[in-house]
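User: I'm putting together notes for a lab meeting next week and I want to include a structural view of one of the chains we've been expressing. I don't have a solved structure, so I'd like a prediction I can at least talk through. The sequence is below, exactly as it appears in our construct file.
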Amino acid sequence: MEITIRPKTKWWQVNLKEIWMFRDLFYFLTWRDIKVKYKQTFIGALWAIFQPFITMVIFSVFFGTLAQIPSDGIPYPIFVYTGLLFWTLFSAGLGSASNSFVSNERIVTKIYFPRIILPISAIITHVIDFAIASVILAGMMMYYGYAPSLMGLLLIPVLLLMCVFSAVGIGLLFASINVKYRDVRFVLPFFIQLLLFLTPVIYPVSIVSEKLRWLLGINPMSGVIDAARAGILGTRDIDFVLLGFSALMMIIYVFVGYFYFKKTERYFADVI
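Assistant: Thanks for the context. Below is the predicted structure for the 272-residue chain, given as structure tokens.
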């Protein structure tokens, strides 16, 4: 019996049935990345806490104490850690997704499977790190006496999904470009570093005038981080206008990334 594998005729078609058929491969790749990440480390999964915690301490000293950057009346350590928690998930997931095709060159060139599994599995690894690092945020909320609002609790899964899909969309674009042009490995770290200062991680959205605040929404993480602070810390109402615009931009990035991925996917094995 001869089986011919052909690409979908329409770029927007997603074969969910095929992805489900390869769920074991998805599980294997995710579990492999988790084991490799912490293999032969002394403190293991505690590195997921160490990075955002130390970054929070440094930012609190330099930006909170010395530079006196406002934090909407919230103690700067918990203010910046809430932002770093979601930012670290996005930036780390974006970095892993962008290198997922190149780092899995051997299986990309030898066997057939839905290639989109690779960037998604790479990002899921960092979702686990997010869950571990959230323990510190819970402890800081108890220490500073903050309690999440009901809306904030309900929004957490939505914000998490927005963060993941933003990384998937932009990551697919960079990963597809990276297959042919390895300049991505030089451009991406600079892009992520620059994007940190264009995202309200170390400063509040309120420092930007309301007329120009929509510009922050071009960066999908702006709405996510602002809503996370408002909802999880329960300090004010959630800015659903900014969050909605960030969600719209997230959808656009996913479509752009997926479109370019589908346009170039058939050539991966030849040029990687």
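A couple of points you could mention at the meeting. The chain is about 70% helix and 0% strand. The chain has one domain: 16-271.

User: Perfect, that's what I needed.
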